[in-house]
Design brief:
By secondary structure, the protein is of the alpha/beta class. Helix content is about 35%, strand content about 25%. It contains 10 helices and 12 strands. Strands 2, 3, 4, 7, 8, 9, 10, 11 and 12 form a 9-stranded mixed beta sheet that branches. The chain has a 3-stranded mixed beta sheet with strand order 1-5-6. A hairpin with a 2-residue loop joins strand 5 and strand 6. It is globular, with a radius of gyration of 17 Å.
Length: about 280
């Protein structure tokens, strides 16, 4: 591993899935992301407050993740903080897990953690705690970072892996971190898993409808692996008068692989009704 990614007293969280989920060569990675972004249909609208983006290997979900993250580009110079929430795939725990790391590294460089926001969140919410083990091998947050590094300028992150928690607990964390124009949210979630193509399309269309209607009660466990952070965002969107829109809805049968067993991916944006739609 490149020396820039070596841990220094545990302060930098090195990439866990570079070379597997996405290229570990910086130039190759940058070219891949730029290629995905060029394929995104431009939207003449202000940058949204939040997006939902998938987190699979880039060959499968990269185009859809680009459809979400590209929407932040109009506020490239304004956005200074990204709150990342995604499911924990490897470690079981109660609540939400943040980090003691000072930065998360990718092949494109290190993204600093907003340590002050992390400390404040832990002090104010009992469901939030520092659990570095929850982040050590977790891909759901990591795979979003290279897209954000290409789209944005200088920004910090608040990384939150979601374990055994309620969507209300997630909404509480989102509320504390809401901020102003400098703060945006990325919810990392794939949709249905390992159904045939037609079944997946039906399930994912229903999930997209529930997201657009801000109805967390209509999203079941098998409809989204990041269901809890997604539903937490939906509750926050209700409170803040945000509207949701689907900007991309595909699955691995559309991007790579067979259509016998597919994984669904969606890109969704959340913004004030009067400013975006």
């Amino acid at each position: 591993m490149n020396s820039m990614f070596q841990r220094e007293s545990g302060k930098i969280r090195p990439p866990a899935v570079a070379g597997r989920f996405y290229p570990d060569n910086p130039a190759e990675l940058h070219r891949m992301i730029e290629g995905f972004l060029r394929e995104v249909k431009s939207a003449d609208a202000p940058a949204p407050k939040a997006v939902i983006a998938p987190h699979a290997g880039y060959v499968y979900s990269g185009p859809i993740a680009a459809s979400a993250c590209a929407r932040f580009a109009p506020a490239r110079a304004i956005i200074k903080r990204i709150v990342l929430l995604g499911p924990s795939h490897h470690v079981s725990f109660k609540g939400l897990a943040t980090t003691s790391a000072e930065a998360f590294a990718t092949p494109l460089g290190a993204v600093p953690v907003d340590a002050a926001a992390v400390r404040d969140l832990c002090a104010r919410l009992p469901q939030v705690s520092v659990r570095d083990e929850a982040h050590a091998y977790e891909h759901s947050l990591e795979v979003e970072l290279p897209f954000l590094q290409v789209v944005l300028a200088d920004f910090k992150i608040v990384p939150l892996a979601v374990g055994d928690a309620s969507d209300e607990q997630v909404a509480e964390a989102i509320e504390i971190l809401w901020g102003g124009d400098e703060t945006r949210f990325v919810i990392s979630s794939d949709l249905s898993h390992y159904h045939d193509y037609a079944t997946a399309r039906e399930l994912d269309t229903a999930t997209a409808r529930a997201i657009e209607e801000l109805r967390p009660q209509d999203i079941g466990g098998e409809q989204a692996c990041g269901r809890i952070p997604v539903c937490g965002l939906l509750r926050a969107a209700q409170k803040h008068g945000l509207r949701a829109q689907t900007v991309d809805l595909r699955n691995s049968g559309d991007t790579a692989g067979s259509r016998n067993e597919v994984v669904g991916y969606g890109a969704f944006v959340f913004a004030q009704i009067e400013s975006y739609f």
